Structures are given as structure tokens and as C-alpha cells.
Amino acid sequence: MIVIATRAKIGAANPIEPFLDILRCPRSGADLRLQGNALVTSDGRHRYRMSEAGIPLFAEEFLSPQAEVQRHHYNKIAAAYTANLNYPHTQEYLAYLDRVVLDAIGPGDLGTVAELCCGRGEAPMLLKGRMSRYIGIDVSENMLEAARQLHKNASSLFLQGDATRVPLAPESIDTVVMLGGVHHVPDRARLFAEIARVLKPGGRFLYREPVSDFIVWRALRAAIYRLSPMLDPSTERPLQYEETVPVLHRAGLASLHYRTHGFLGFCLFMNSDVLFFNRLFQFVPGIRAITRGAARFDEAVLNLPGFARAGLQVVGLAEKPVSAQGKAGLPASATLSSG
Predict the structure, then answer these.
(1) Concatenated DSSP letters for 74-100?
(2) Which domains occur in the chain, in start order?
(3) For the whole model, what pTM was predicted?
């Protein structure tokens, strides 16, 4: 395993150096080199400064309009977003969802991992000990600062960047992870094409996202997204099967797993950002055990006939085929698998 210590200041032994082999200019695709407190293309045409914390700012002057909206939104709510994940019932339900994700990805080393829309850096906590290198990419400087505080000793590098034009070389990543990030990117075709570009042949894309395949949840979410200050309806859209698996296929990624999770228990224990009464559950005796029971109830409901797509979260896994045929080599049966 390669261990890379991340430091706050730019120094002689810069923590970015071990990543220069896979970092690329998002505008030109050119190699990058360190020059003082900046990353510069070899021809000198493009320059990206680093923050005082040593975070390369690839999105400071280069960002899609939708990503700019998300950048502003999450810079504003970063502290509240992190606080909402610290309630005991939220942690307990997240632990259940984490187990579901780990079951989907299976055992083994994950190699070089890139987490897009990384927020506070979920993948290093979930996949600890299974990554040789980790690159976390997000548009929000404030979320990246929170991630740096949380992962001071992680073998990782955090970058500010746009998920639809990431500063990574083609076929340089073994595993791409998005845990609640896909629904923040309206242009799914461009996002999935970018993921396919950076993945090595045989590399995998793991995601866990809000999903609205069930018409009841779709209607409720439409209302909640317009009412909650924690959500941005102009750029956030939960996944649907028809807008996900076929789009992955067209991007050159074979869908291996697509399964929904979370039902009424998820509604009660995982929405403290929009359901303010949810926060009072922290004072209920035995709330962790109650939450675990709710997760088991949700799983039982979704195993009933006709309820397979009725969950509020989807866990999915896709793979870039090793076949040199590219998109033409995708097996149709794999792309339509519901896992």
C-alpha cells in the first residue's frame, strides 16, 4: 500500500507530488507540474493556484453553470450538512446503508480510488484499508476544508473540481465512488462519460444515491425539494432507473447491480436536514436499537413482490469492460441487471 501524508501547507515534500502522474489540466488534458503554490501545464498556458490549506483549485475559474450553483449552495450549508450526519439515529441508519454498499462492491483491494462530489470524504471512512491512493473531488471549498480536517492522516488528496471535467488522466483510476453526488449533477450523460474516461478497463463505478423510481416518493420529493433550504431543486434530481442504467450503457459502462433500499425507516431517521422533528429522536432512549429495527423492517418491505424499486436510496455498481470493443462489447444482459 502506498501511504501519502497530506499536509496543510505547501512545502518541499509536497503531498501532491505522488499524484502528478495522474493529474491533468481539465481544460487541455495536458500534464501538470508544481510551480510554487500552483499547478501549471507544461506549456504554461493554464495555471491553478492552491488554497492556504494546499487544496488545488481547479474549479476557481473553470466551472459549469450547474456546478457553480452547487458550489455556492454547499459553501453556504457545509456546517449544517455535517452536523446533520452526527445524530445517533442518522449514524445508525447510515451504518446499515454502508453495509449494503460494501456488499455490492465485494471484498478485495480497490486500487486508486476517486470520489466525485466527495463532500466531507465518505469513501475513506467506508473503504479504509482497501485503497492504495484516494483522490476526493468536490466543487465546494468549505466541504473540502471539512474533509481535510476529518482526514488529516489519510492517504489522500483533496481537489476542487467539476465532476463533469475532472483533472485526471484517462484510464488512471481503478474505482470511482459517488455517495450522494450523482443527483447533484444534472447532465448525467456527461458525468458517466467522464467516469468512463478516467476508469481503467475493468475499473468499477460504485454509487449510492437518492432514487425516485416509486411514484409516491417522487411526488413527495418534488414538494420537499421546493420547500427545504437545504436542497436546491434547480440542480438536484434523484435518480430513476430509466435515466441511469441506459445512460451508463451509452457511456460505455455495464451495469452490474442496481437495487433500492430504505423505506419508512429511512424517511424517519435519515432526513434531519428537512424534517426538523427528526432531530428530537436523539433524546429517545434506545434510539439506536429502534433505528436498526427500522432498517430491518425496510429491507423486509422491499423484498416483497412488487416493491423491489420502491426504496428511497439506490446502490449501484457498473464496470468498464476490458474488451477492446468498448461500448459495442457491452453485454446487454449486464446493463439491465437489477442486482
Answers:
(1) HHHHHHHHHHTT-SHHHHHHHHHHHHH
(2) 54-335 (3.40.50.150)
(3) 0.87
